[in-house]
Amino acid sequence: MSEPRTAPDREPDGPFAEVGQRGPERLEAFSDGVFAIAITLLVLEIRVPPAQDLATPGALVAALGGLWPSYLGYVLSFVTVGVMWANHHNLIRLVATVSHGLMLANLALLLAVGFVPFPTALLAATLQTPTGQIGVLIYAATFIGIALAFNLLWYEIRRGRGVLRANVSRRSIDSITRSYRLGPPGFAIAFLAALINPALGMLVIVALVAVYLLPSSSGA
Amino acid sequence: MSEPRTAPDREPDGPFAEVGQRGPERLEAFSDGVFAIAITLLVLEIRVPPAQDLATPGALVAALGGLWPSYLGYVLSFVTVGVMWANHHNLIRLVATVSHGLMLANLALLLAVGFVPFPTALLAATLQTPTGQIGVLIYAATFIGIALAFNLLWYEIRRGRGVLRANVSRRSIDSITRSYRLGPPGFAIAFLAALINPALGMLVIVALVAVYLLPSSSGA
Amino acid sequence: MSEPRTAPDREPDGPFAEVGQRGPERLEAFSDGVFAIAITLLVLEIRVPPAQDLATPGALVAALGGLWPSYLGYVLSFVTVGVMWANHHNLIRLVATVSHGLMLANLALLLAVGFVPFPTALLAATLQTPTGQIGVLIYAATFIGIALAFNLLWYEIRRGRGVLRANVSRRSIDSITRSYRLGPPGFAIAFLAALINPALGMLVIVALVAVYLLPSSSGA
Amino acid sequence: MSEPRTAPDREPDGPFAEVGQRGPERLEAFSDGVFAIAITLLVLEIRVPPAQDLATPGALVAALGGLWPSYLGYVLSFVTVGVMWANHHNLIRLVATVSHGLMLANLALLLAVGFVPFPTALLAATLQTPTGQIGVLIYAATFIGIALAFNLLWYEIRRGRGVLRANVSRRSIDSITRSYRLGPPGFAIAFLAALINPALGMLVIVALVAVYLLPSSSGA
């Protein structure tokens, strides 16, 4: 979308080059949009207490306090999606041209990221009910799916001819591969922990998100 | 929005050139925004089950299972809009300058794409009711409209003077034209199939979307 | 956001230039976002009919037919906001550096554009009720406000030192000024017509939007 | 996302440079998205009056008049978030490369900005009830949080090695630091004023937003 289209390492001038080759700029723009919207829609799940709770300050404070699962869901999902955006950013920077497989893998990732507001709302709705465990399990399962989609995306970047930029070192590639491989089993552990105890499952998820906030894990 | 405005093949310096000529960068940015938002709003149609379904795990699992039309609608519309975005991307890359007709055709396309969350929600709401057939028919009709809008957009790109980039080969043009011509009759067949049997209509839609996921159909 | 920051006609290298001068790229990106989101949120106002209308095909067809004010509002507001986006695009292309006044005028315009989903929903809700006139009046008033904001924006572009690009001809400037001056009285006529008869007011609005779809009116 | 990636002051060609160094383009794009969406979602909190208020023009006018807290909340939050966007724009323009700390500080800021629709809706819902004071207090507290996040962001820009662009003058830096330091105590005064009297608290918030609309405060 913004780099000069004649940049030699992005859009070669061979026959049909204008159709067969493309840089990642609009893929980035579209993905940025989906990440930004998914992260911002999260706030819509925090609902203003109904009219009867606005009758006295005490009732409102109690009602607002009772929304803590919504606040927790907002913060946790916002930070997680934000970290995923940073990871996505770091991955796509390594892309020279967009293959069809990369396009599909990216769409699969966005499908999972765009879904996050639903399990977040479900988590918030169930946390204080007898169905809290189901909320945590589905929340963890969503992140297993996203972690798998990230691995698929990275696989597509590495395997396509000319997709990965030529100047990325083997060491960088291996470091990213290692970091990404930990995602699915990590969230699977959270899922299993939630089977034993929902609060334990939440704790593992929070810990995982905290780990992904560390500089080393984002490939940067 | 991003290419140097003095790039010779984009913004000639003739009189009034600053008003009469424009590259597709902001058209892309605006369209990317509409596609990204339409695709992300789809998740808002998946509603968390009401409080009474959160009383027991069994009730919640049943309620979440009963939401399958919403999940189906989310995935189907997300993938379809995602593929449309990729097609749009491929088309606009061939544009050198934006004509007024192209602007209007693009607006017509965005009007149809921005509408998708409504027939998707209607499809999900009706699939398990006696009105499921209407839901499928309106869903198919929406995609007929989008396919027609894509043909109009492509027509406007080809017919305007200086709209199509000079270096696009005749073979690429013909290949895209052929691929786009199949869209309206394809979804019309889905519509007709839904008239006979709603499930059959859905099957045709799913098959069409799967075909559009193949590399050859997106012009890439 | 995307042009090389050292481009001489955009970001001079004088003292404090990095703070005091700025090109319109991020203003464009932010405005594109607001336009794209406002236009896409419009679909959320078209509500799926309630469960009782899904009992028989006849009831659903009647319910969907009864939503015609929502479809009308969607199409009318989508096209109007889309045309406004194109106009905004054409205006900002003439900007070399962003002044503080331009920033504020742009914010005022976005405030009005971002408000459009509310009068659109109000119009759709009231059109078939005894309060339809109020819906049309508020809808027209919103567009008077937007037309005024466009004139303010254009005024700020012309009056700031170095805001308007140096290579814009006097003839282009005058042509845009003339075109923009017609906006506020045009929608004021729609408002007055709606005072006499709501349907007449709607007709004037539809006619105005159709006129703005003509190539000559968008400055392109 | 848009500047040539080989620009010497942005992406050095040292070993692992493609992973370890990055310009602020996609950070800007993602942040622009979140600001634009948060600001545009505000309109969803202005609800069309229920059906019974659409029975007579008098009832509708009264109902629409009764929505004044929603209009106030919309305008106030829109302008405030818009000014914050401008400030964010001005800050990020000074960034040469994005550090991990900057990424996290930016995420914290977006977390607070994305939250704004909730306290805005709460303010509108409570303003005419006995709980209005709580609404104003939470609204003010949100802006204290955002002001703190801005100071953290600016701190991260200054402290990281190579994060701040080399050509930013000491005078510019000091001017921004002074301006940002006033934010948290300013909104804290609004909070304290609201403890005494909610209307007084609102007045201080409105005054602060008006001050931030002045050219000198945005660092431009």
Largest interface: B-C, 46 and 53 residues
- The low-confidence runs of chain A, each spanning 5 or more residues with pLDDT under 50, are 1-20
Give the quaternary arrangement of the chains: homotetramer
From the N-terminal CA to the C-terminal CA of chain A, the straight-line distance is: 24 Å
Shape type of chain A:
elongated
Number of strands of chain A: 0
Q: What structural category characterises the helix and strand content of chain A? A: mainly alpha
The total domain count of chain A is 1
- The number of helices of chain A is 10
Mean pLDDT of chain A: 83
Portion in beta strands of chain A: under 5%
- Helicity level of chain A: 55-70%
Question: How does the major sheet of chain A shape up?
Answer: none
Q: What's the helix-strand series of chain A? A: HHHHHHHHHH
- Radius of gyration of chain A, rounded? 20 Å
Distinctive features:
mainly alpha, 10 helices, 220 residues, 68% helix, homotetramer, disordered N terminus, 0% strand
